[in-house]
Write a structure and sequence with these properties.
binds zinc ion, 5-stranded mixed β-sheet, single chain, 14 strands, alpha/beta, Metallo-beta-lactamase, Chain A
Length: about 250
């Protein structure tokens, strides 16, 4: 178990062009199932809400926002007036996610999909707090489904499934049912814990990886995608040279 510390308490919101609206609840340590920190409280200092209005079209990506908390990452993918949440952070993260929605000019009512990359507590911890807030479909990788306690039914996802224009990519290894979310139109990959970037781009942390061989195979698989941005569960988004970095990593494994 890892005793992690909260190193970031500010709410950061940034925007990237050509990608889905995206908010990241981010923390700095590796994935762990140990007891979570108390809910980080966003402060005004780091907040920089996007000034761009949401488009009226629901067909096109709109850019992405990042909400950076501490320890782990959750994502709010905005398309038109609808939102998909990818991962829910540690328990109590729902308030920060709500802040991220507001910063993007959205709110709980826009959330139509909640996708969990895998069953670890720091990715599903906010689920119980989000469930009462939204009328959404909840999803997880079919193999991890049984490890997730949810008040709402969870819809199983498998390789090639499509949700909200997002393609599901099976990336087992970190957990056996780990999935990543790929947005083909923009080359954006929400990588869960299949990749991390705290110390440059790396594969799943061996300390928390169920099957390292599978995790390595998943990295090599991801390297075959036309990726322009990697949005990991732990660490900073990689938005420049992502494909090259991933191919280099894959070749080194
Ligand atoms: Zn994990």
């Amino acid at each position: 178990m890892t005793a992690y510390r909260i190193s970031r308490r500010r709410l950061f919101v940034s925007a990237g062009a050509g990608v889905l609206g995206l908010a990241v609840v981010n923390t700095v340590s590796a994935c762990s199932t140990s007891s979570p920190p108390s809910r980080p409280v966003p402060t005004a200092g780091g907040s920089q809400p996007s000034a761009e209005p949401l488009p009226t079209s629901t067909a096109l990506p709109t850019g992405w926002n990042r909400v950076n908390l501490s320890y782990v990452s959750a994502y709010l993918l905005l398309r038109g007036k609808e939102v998909a949440i990818v991962d829910t952070g540690t328990p109590g993260s729902e308030s920060a996610i709500e802040d991220g929605l507001k910063a993007a000019g959205s709110g709980w009512s826009a959330v139509k999909h909640v996708i969990l990359t895998h069953y670890h507590d720091d990715h599903i911890g906010g689920l119980s707090g989000i469930e009462p807030q939204v009328k959404a479909t909840f999803y997880a990788g079919s193999v991890d489904l049984g490890n997730i306690i949810s008040d709402k039914p969870l819809k199983p996802l498998n390789e090639g499934d499509e949700v909200f224009g997002l393609r599901i990519v099976d990336t087992p290894g970190h957990t056996r049912g780990h999935i990543s979310i790929f947005e083909p139109g923009t080359g954006t990959l929400v990588a869960g814990d299949a990749l991390r970037t705290q110390n440059g781009l790396e594969s799943s942390d061996p300390q928390y990886t169920t099957d390292q061989k599978l995790a390595t195979a998943s990295v090599k698989k991801l390297a075959g995608l036309d990726i322009k941005a990697i949005l990991p569960g732990h660490g900073e988004p990689l938005t420049a040279g992502a494909k090259e970095a991933l191919q280099k990593l894959a070749a080194s494994l």
